[in-house]
Amino acid sequence: MDETQQYIVIHYGEVSIKGKNRPAFLRRLAANIQRALGDLGESSIAMLSGRFLVGLPKDIPWPCLEARLRSVFGLVNFSPCASAPHNLDAIKQTVSEVLRDRGFPSFRITARRAFKELPFRSMSLQAALGEHVLATHPTRVDLDHPALTVHVEIVTRRALIYTDKIAGAGGLPSGISGLVLGLLSGGIDSPVAAYRMMKRGCRVDFVHFHSYPFLDRSSQQKALQLAQQLTQHQYDARLFVVPFGEVQQRIVSAVPAAYRVVLYRRYMLRIATALAQRTGAEALVTGESLGQVASQTLQNMSVIAEASSLPLLRPLIGMDKVEIIHEATRMGTFAVSIQPDQDCCTLFVPRHPATRTRLEDILAAEQALDTPALVEMALDGVQTVALHFPSVQASAEPALGSESAPGCGQPLEA
To answer: What's the CATH code of the domain at 256?
Structure first.
């Protein structure tokens, strides 16, 4: 192995049980690993039996590598490692190098052989290395609760030696399950919903509805910041920023106050569905949790979902607010989500929204609205922000639905 390089052994989990589709999952996972590390220096990645071996320049700080790899979905764990040839004395010497200057009151050796064409078995290798460590360190063997575990993995052409397993994000490689469109409000729930779909292998594009100029731009800036954070898990995304205030104003002027919230949600789904159809997304994702607010009763969710022809995925449906907050905190989005903003959901909200609407009543109320015209009006004002990671940066593309609509396609401030 190149002495100018540092090496990381990476283990994956669920990917390994994908049968005939496993090569596609592994290719995607390898590509995601390389993308996550791509701006740090020239890297190599080798597929070994049940694991990857990644090589990078030694001058890259380990905390930076650890942070990048923690964000890659599909990894169960990873570790900095050393390598030795298939020779017992060389393996002993490398174990000594790995343990140099380390004190540990107890230890165990765990050996695994993915490559079995060697004159020693796992148990005999563990015994020989255990005797070597006892002879060179003031410590004792503890097979049940060791202070330190030395892992030795025999793979083709080499033995990998490491001590610290760092937990990965788990799940499936982002992008392997297809493209979905996530409704991103800027609150606590919707980023968690998007994260969960990424963890199941989806690539998520985002759509954010705002009410500027009726309200300020704070919700747009929050949505952009949240989308940037989430893009670290999938490397590319689009954020569609949709003006919704005029649609809300039309709804307010034409329908009973109690129905406004349900109609807002139905028109959001119609607009999101049109965007998904134009961009190839196969489903919509929301941060709804059953019973959390007036629009999230079973009756209202059923009426709202009827407005879309696409599958509507609700990964948080059975979670309570405490659970969602805990996950948002762990993800790192909670601090952004709780920043004050003027969200479109706060505009023209009735004092007593209906919690048990009937579809026939809502359809009757919508007869007073020109639905196709409202959807096209919103689409004509869409701003598209392209996001990339590493080196996340926002760039604007022409607005969807219109190449000449006034005010379209203006970049958001990153």
So the answer is: 3.40.50.620
